[in-house]
Write a structure and sequence with these properties.
alpha+beta; 3 domains; Vanillyl-alcohol Oxidase, Chain A, domain 3; five-stranded antiparallel β-sheet; about 25% helix; Uridine Diphospho-n-acetylenolpyruvylglucosamine Reductase, domain 2; single chain; about 475 residues; eight-stranded antiparallel β-sheet; Uridine Diphospho-n-acetylenolpyruvylglucosamine Reductase, domain 3
Length: about 475
Amino acid sequence: MITSDVVIARLEDGPVRLTSEELDALAAHTDGRLLLPGDAGWNNALVVWNALAARTPALILQPSSARDVSAAIDFARERDLLVSIKGGGHNVAGTSFAERALALDMSRMRDVAVDPDAKLVHVGPGCLLKDVDRATQKHGLATVLGLMSETGVAGLTLGGGFGYLTRRFGWAVDNLQEVEIVTADGVVRTANREENADLFWALRGGGGNFGVVTRFTFRVHRVGPSITGGMAVWSADRADDILSLFREVTESAPRELTAILFVGLAPAVPFLGEQWHGKPIVSMLVCHSGSNAEAHLAPIRDVGEPLADLIGETSYAEQQSMFDDDLPTGLNYYLKSEYLSALSSDFLATFGSSALKVTSPRSEAMIVHIGGAVNEKADDDGAVGNRDARYVAWFDAVWQPGDSGDEHVAWARDAWDGIRRFSTGGNYVNFQTGDDNDHRVHATYGSNFERLVKVKKAYDPDNAFRVNRNIRSNS
């Protein structure tokens, strides 16, 4: 029995006090766990990847089913309460929580069911990438997810999603077959290309604007368990050569090869001598999920003089976790990105010059090659759009909580300003920061934006789901 009242934010006007009787009623109508500040498990539930974006809700409900979510949405709607949703807690803008809101923490809904005969995987909304990879790789299967095993599947997917398999199989949402979702009216719906097709279209890239997804169903593909992957590292003195090499490799790469370029400061890792720790480096990470890998990777081997060459046979699951230690939970992150259609010499020179001005040990600049399957569908095949993107480039400022971030944020923003003239005009909504404005959200979707607004008005006319990169009309 709950013995204290809670002051909680509303969608409009000021906060409201919920009585202990009201909270008991919510708990009685759900099988999940209702947490108040000070309860066991409260602090763990609050943890998010980006400490810079940490927020403190008034209540946390950890639902265990779509029925629980529906009860919570009904409870919130009747009282005009502000609601946020935490999947994996990995969003850079911190959309998992809002101050004094009712937060739905989906971490108890973490089931994965693989149907290898149908080539489908059914995924709970609290799953991390590693949960899905662990289950699908038992069958030598995988779907398109991200680049870090600790990322939440829900947020990554609803924003479009890209990763090592994007060049072969498209955006993550190109592989999404169906969702179960609780919309703002509390109704549990199924959405796919035939049922609630307009809602399904919007969910394929439109973010958390349309409801609480309680099940994802993805198409899976034959991948792994063994692939060729890893990284090679060079001194930043060779940055121009390696940037040119990256362009050469990616322009001729088969779909099975994804390459990622990094510029930053060398971490204190055993495979780099102590004399290199903290020194500027450039590296290339590769994932080759097909055959004839060595022939396709020959240009990287031939360039010579690496500080380390760690490219070889590995597991796909291991490849998916390579970033985890570099970008751990609990640091401050500030990220700026753009989509690119090509890597011109002017762009490479601009990117390299800005990247080498990096201001902190963990900050880094990256380019990921994503061109391939994403470019073969119409721009309105899912809200995700951006079918002209062949690369995504970003600058990620990273620093310790408690330290001043002004210098690091300035580096990321200045570097980003330098490459914007090379952009397709689009950007990845999951990489937007909390200070990005409505214009930036609009630019994400281009010609798909007005259709998104119509779907938003149909399924969430009161903008109940607003703790996100919010879709709203310019009028």
